[in-house]
């Protein structure tokens, strides 16, 4: 019985020491080209989806109209296209990242879904706002305001639907100037 107890105690002590040594001496897969850690995707996906489900907004405060979709296209092109690509032009940078970066203007295999258009827009909003640790996806809270995050999220949610010509041109890489605000109307003169 004493040998069994000694074996359990040694097992409880040696396993954590071995794991710490394995990490300390650089053996875990940390380079992009390394094989993934066993069950890495499952380990990170479960808490990520639970947190998104718990924290994502319940309503969308803006409409998916032409103005918001074109504004979202400008934001996408400036902030997202480097990693997520443009329509018909995948990002060359994406293939050198781990985990893989979804190309948001490509159709899924065996599906009519484009990018994340099958995700709720509120989920995309959460991801753009907060980012995703250990994935290369930055959080844009503090870089973009809430309206801008909703605009790009609405654009991506509607990627599999007909978009306004201005938005299509932008996500295809056309050189278009960013939207400008119309000048405020001046007060009428009281003079004849």
The count of β-strands is 0
CATH architecture of the largest domain: Orthogonal Bundle
Strand content: under 5%
The CATH C-level class name of the largest domain: Mainly Alpha
Summarize the model shown.
This protein is mainly alpha-helical and 192 residues long. It has two domains: 50 residues, no CATH class; 113 residues, Cytochrome Bc1 Complex, Chain D, domain 2 (Orthogonal Bundle), CATH 1.10.760. Helix content is 45%, strand content 0%.
List the defining traits of the structure above.
mainly alpha, 192 residues, elongated, Cytochrome Bc1 Complex, Chain D, domain 2
Report on this model:
The chain has 192 residues and is mainly alpha-helical. It folds into two domains: 50 residues, no CATH class; 113 residues, Cytochrome c-like domain (Cytochrome Bc1 Complex, Chain D, domain 2), CATH 1.10.760. Helices cover 45% and strands 0% of the residues. Helix 3 packs across helix 6, helix 3 runs parallel beside helix 7 and helix 5 crosses helix 6. The longest helix has 23 residues. The C terminus is likely disordered.
